[in-house]
Structures are given as structure tokens and as C-alpha cells.
Amino acid sequence: MSEHRILLVGHGMISHRYVEAFSHMPNASIVGVVGRDQERASAYAREKGIAYADTDLERAAAMTRATAAVVCTPNAAHGPAVLTAAKLGLHILCEKPLHIDPAVQTEMIASCRENGVKLAVSFMRRFTDHIQYVRELIERGNLGRLQVVDAVLKHYRPQSYYGTWHGTYAMDGGGPFIQQASHMIDLVLWLTGPYREVLDAKLFQTAHEIETEDHGYACIAYKNGAIGMIEASTACAGMDQEYLAISGTKGSIVLDFDGIRHFRVEGIESPPDFPEVKTEHLFRRLAEDFIRSIEQDAEPFISGESAAQAVELVVEIYRKAGTVLRLEQGSSPTA
Questions:
Q1: Which of 143, 244, 121, 124 is nearest to 184 (CA)?
Q2: Phi, psi torsion values for 228, nearest 5 degrees
């Protein structure tokens, strides 16, 4: 078995998931970490038992003889890291979303193709057993012709969450639509197919002093004829709710990331039992698939081209909505 020597580019909270996932793989190891500040990168490396830390990706790749990179920087910083890694011949697993700009995503995908490296993206929810089961039902036609597809994400984030790069256009790319809801939007497109048009969209600032929206709605028409709403919010105090509701001519299914919550489909009495969903297992499956794609010279399960579609839809939602409206108590929304 070949040894895969992985550089961790970025060492924020999400990076811990990748360290844990790759620790279970006997033929892969994280050999270096790259950050913006040498002292912080070195401290992280010591904490995780990683042998090398640097602030320069090219130098780190040479010093560690890296063969791959996991990019888990802030959203807009994915572009420079992926482009540099591709030119160095490193296979790449990139945190979601791939980028905040569809044009940059296209450049990233093209660079990986031109340099002969794999590009996988961390929409790991696609590995969830019950979600894969629902996709199989849709593909087999068990739900008939899809008619309504709704996606709801209601969370709360304190103002302190937006004290860094979150909620900025330059680095986050927007608010909850592109950040918290990107997994949900990716699943909508993966389960039901590409969108045709954003019919309408509205964005609001209801609970935070930020550049972007913290709450919004969009009405989407899909190429298969279905229509539906997407709601994304970090302004719902006391809530932690995410679900998809999919209705076709032969039945309806409501699911969230933890399981199937409603199931009524012609000819099927009930769905099978599925194991408990554990996020660490999804990251392990993501890491395993990334290594598989390298060793078998195959497309990753979540390729750059596939993952890019979620951002394309989010950017079109933002374009359709235009100015974010501020809600003031006792008054109409203002731009």
C-alpha cells in the first residue's frame, strides 16, 4: 500500500475532524500543517503530534515530501490554497464550500485537471446511509415525478460568532445560505437534480450587526419540474432545526441529517432501519474515499464539479435577492 503524506492547510476548528479521520488510515498520515502565523501553526502541530509547521505551502510541501493537501481555511482562502497545491502536484480535499465565487471554482477545477490531481470537497453528508437510500428511491422512480422540494435550516449564532470572518462578503461570501446551509443546498441538488431558475429571493438582517444576511428565503424551480422553498437562518434563538421535505406523485419523505422523519411512499410500507449517524464516521468515509480516488485514479465521490453547483445556486439566490433588508422593531424593512 502506498503512503499518502498529507499537509493540513489551515488549523481552525474544522481541522480537528480531519486529524481524527486520517488517524484511522494506516496508509495515510498528516505530515505538516500550514497556517498564517508560525507560532500558532507550531503550537497546533505540537498539540496534534504533527512533525512540521510552516506558513508557506510550497516550502512545506517540499520539506515534508507531501503528496496531498487538506484545505480547511476560511471560504475565500480556499482558492489560493487549492491553486497552489494543484501546481505542486498535490491531490486536494477541500472544505465546503469549494469557494464563494463560481468563476474561481471553475479555475480551481480546471487547474486540478490540468495538473493531474484529484479534487474532492467536504460535503460529507452525502455519505449518510439514510440519505443515500432516499436518493436511490428517487432515482428508481419510487416517488414518481417530483413536485415539491423544500429545505429548511433554522439555527442561532451569537453576535460573537460574527466577530471574525463570518458574516463578511470578502471571506465568508455571505451569511447562512453559503455557510450553514451549504450542506443542505448540496443535498437538495444531489437528491433532486439541478435547478432551473431562482424565481424569487429575500434576504434580511434580523438579529445581528453584520454585512450579510442572517435570515432569508428563496423560491427555486428545478429542471425536473419541481418547485420549492429554501429557508436559511442564524437568527432563530433556541432552534437547531434542519430538514428536507420531498414530495412526488407517489409519496413524500421528510428527512434531516439524523434520520427519516416522515415516510409515505406507494408500495413501500416503511424504510429500513439505519445506524446512528455519527459525524466522525462521515469524515472517515470522506477521507477513505479521497484516498481511494487517488489509488484507483478515479473521481472522488464528491468531486469539485459536483460540489460547485451548490455555490452556483447560492450566488444566484444572492443576485436575485439584491440588497439585504434590515428589520427594525416597529417599522418596515429598510435597505
A1: 244
A2: -175, 170
Length of the chain: 335
Secondary structure percentages of the chain, helix, strand, coil, to 5: 35, 25, 40
Can you spell out the DSSP letters for 1-21? ---EEEEEE--STTHHHHHHH
Single-letter amino acid code for the residue at 322: G
136 and 184 in contact (C-beta within 8 Å)?
no
Tell me which long-range contacts 258-265 makes (C-beta under 8 A, separation of at least 24): 259/130, 260/130, 260/133, 260/134, 265/137, 265/142, 265/143
CB atoms within 10 A of CB 148: 13
Residue listed under C-alpha cell 474561481: 104
- Give yes or no for a contact between 139 and 176, defined as CB atoms under 8 angstroms apart: no
Residue-wise DSSP of 228-268:
EEEEEESB-TT--EEEEEEEETTEEEEE-SS-EEEEEETTB
**pTM tops 0.85:** yes
Helix axes 78-87, 57-64, angle to 10 degrees: 40
Helix (H, G, I), strand (E, B) or coil at 50: coil
pLDDT per residue as tens digits for the range 240-277: 999 999 999 999 999 999 999 999 999 999 999 999 99
